[in-house]
Amino acid sequence: MTNPQITLGAINMEAEDPTGLATFWTGVTGAEQSVNGESVYLPPNGPGGFGMFFQRGTVPRSEHQVSHLDLTVPWGSRKAEGERIIGLGATFGWEVLEEFAHVQWTTLADPERNLFCVAEHPPADQQGA
């Protein structure tokens, strides 16, 4: 039996304001919006990118977020990317810089309070140094 070739097609999110939230994520990813009524799709922005789909929420939002996005940026650019995304409307949460040798990250929240992380991984020869 061969292994399936599974890739991420899109991340689907319910939102109070799908267009507004999609506009924030357009700024983060650089993708072009495709609007269909109240739904908005952001296609992957280049190889290795990911799509996002936004639609109006149908039930009250839970206080507990059960999953979140981990976005990876090149080593040495996490702080600048975090500041850029905060400039787009994100809120700073916290940083984890020394807990793991293989990753550092900044946790942010988008305008509708969805948590996500901006992470960087040091080159293999710098891990644990």
Structure, described:
The chain has helices at residues 18-29, 78-88; strands at 10-15, 34-36, 39-42, 51-56, 69-72, 91-100, 103-109, 115-120. The chain has two domains: 8-61; 62-129, 2,3-Dihydroxybiphenyl 1,2-Dioxygenase, domain 1. Strand 3 and strand 4 (51-56) form a beta hairpin. It has two helices and eight strands; from the N terminus they run E-H-E-E-E-E-H-E-E-E. It is globular, with a radius of gyration of 16 Å. The strands form two sheets. A four-stranded mixed β-sheet has the order 1-4-3-2, covered by helices on one side. It is 18% helix and 36% strand. The mean pLDDT is 91. It has 129 residues and is of the alpha/beta class. It comes from Arthrobacter livingstonensis.
The main pleated sheet reads as:
4 strands, mixed
Q: What overall form do the CA principal axes indicate?
A: globular
Number of domains: 2
* Annotation, overall tally of beta strands: 8
Radius of gyration over alpha carbons? 16 Å
H and E string: EHEEEEHEEE
Q: What class would the helix/strand composition place it in? A: alpha/beta
Distance between the termini: 41 Å
Work out the helix count. Answer: 2
Instruction: Give unreliable regions as ranges.
Output: none
Overall average residue pLDDT: 91
Give the CATH superfamily of the largest domain.
2,3-Dihydroxybiphenyl 1,2-Dioxygenase, domain 1
Keywords: Dioxygenase, Oxidoreductase
Organism: Arthrobacter livingstonensis
Domain Glyoxalase-like: 11-118
Pfam families: Glyoxalase_6
